[in-house]
Write a structure and sequence with these properties.
This protein is an all-alpha fold and 511 residues long. Helices cover 75% and strands 0% of the residues. Helix 1 (2-80) runs parallel beside helix 9 and helix 12 runs antiparallel to helix 13. The two termini are 47 Å apart. The relative contact order is 0.13. The model is unreliable at 192-225, 234-289 and 296-305 (pLDDT under 50).
Amino acid sequence: MLLRWAARIVIGTGAVLVAVASWVAAQEAARANGSWQEGVRAQVRYTGRTLENVRAVYLDEAPQALQVWTAVIRAEELSRRAARGGRVVRAEAAAERATAREYLENYGYTIPPVNPLLTDPRYGGHTAPRVGRRLADLQAGNLGAAKATAGAFAAGDRSGRVVGPAGQTMIGGAVLVLLGVLLAQKAATGNGAVSPEAPWEPGTGPYGSHEVRRPGGRRAAGLVLAVVLVATSAGRRTWRVPPVPAFLLTVGGLAAGFLLRGRPGLRTGAAPRPGENGGNAEQAVVPAVPPGVPPAAPEEKAGRWWVPPWAVLLGVLVTVATALQIQAGTGESRALGVAARDASLLSTAAIGHVTRKAFETNGTQIALMTGHRGDALSRAARRAGPATRTAARARAAADRATARRIGLLTVAMSARPADRDGMDATTRLVVGGIGPEQQAVQREHDSAVLRAEAAGTRSDRLVVVILLLSLAGICAEIARASWARRLRRPLGLAGGTLGTAAAVLAVLAFT
């Protein structure tokens, strides 16, 4: 009686744990996958807006500001040499000042949109433009997408950390079911239930003195121990989390015992004798069995109950494979999310860096052209007459000085953004070019791609393992039927082949 109640509690506890843990694992895995995908979408929105801001600053505002400052600088250099160059140089200096003023009016106020690099004091105003600060202020409106990306990945990681313990709970519940079945069969054999697989000997039967061959308890215990060891070894490689607390098993057992209280349990024990348990003589008449003829196999409706341990063990193996497959699928989703996030960032960084370098190249070309013009004027002054030689030399000196200042201004405006500009690390990575930060992201991306490939391969192989184990169990169950006696050999061969293939794939999944 005690073993029967213990079997009920253990089986109920295991069933409850497997059901609840399976639901939790599936729900949390789906939630984690959704969060990671949302993080990727938020990252795409963030990088898209970042690229728009980079283009607006380095392709629209900064080139206009550089053109204006080129005119201002040349006007200043000509004004410094107006006394030596005469009326021609003074007139050209006045023209450059008028041009700069017109640029300021047009690009700064008249033509929409307004160019803050020319008008806003925060970005220099009438001094050298602070392009990095301007980009940082534009990116301040993009912080919401960046926070959404980080929050989504953090939420996915929290859900993903639940999948591991849930899978361990699934395996623990399945092992409890197997132990409960062994306890139930021990109680059944102790009360007179005969294993349908045990050989019959004359003089044995359900109503007389008999000897019963009990199931191989040591072998079953060894199988259970092997399953626990395999699950623990695989779990340490897959989950890297501590085992499920023991109090969960205790609470589940008490809950299952409460739920099973007063309900019909496992029907074990001998069939009722005539007149027992409310039966009448007609209902309990047992036909005589001739000597030397084995009794009929016990039937479930007569109170006999028998489940081979290997069937439950097969269920444990399927549960282990399912738990590992869910964990592998979750790992694949996480790695794919990280790879997609980093790929979006790296592609945006490549375009942003090229955009900044294009502006730098344009400014360098302006400086070079201005310097070449000064050199050409200097050569022309040597062949000019005394009346124009002085003016040509003054203009040449002004152009060479302008070229040097434009070159320095271009370097300052196209420099990599610094911390003093108030720019976040991601934006600095986007416009900074190849550096330690971008190399770290590239390494993370490559590692995530490899992890995703390994986890995807493991998940696919474990799905096939689950299918093969299920088919092997079907073959074995059909072979046990009385009508399939002639098919037992081919069915056994098929089941063994399927089981061997499942074992090979399970080994390959973790190598």
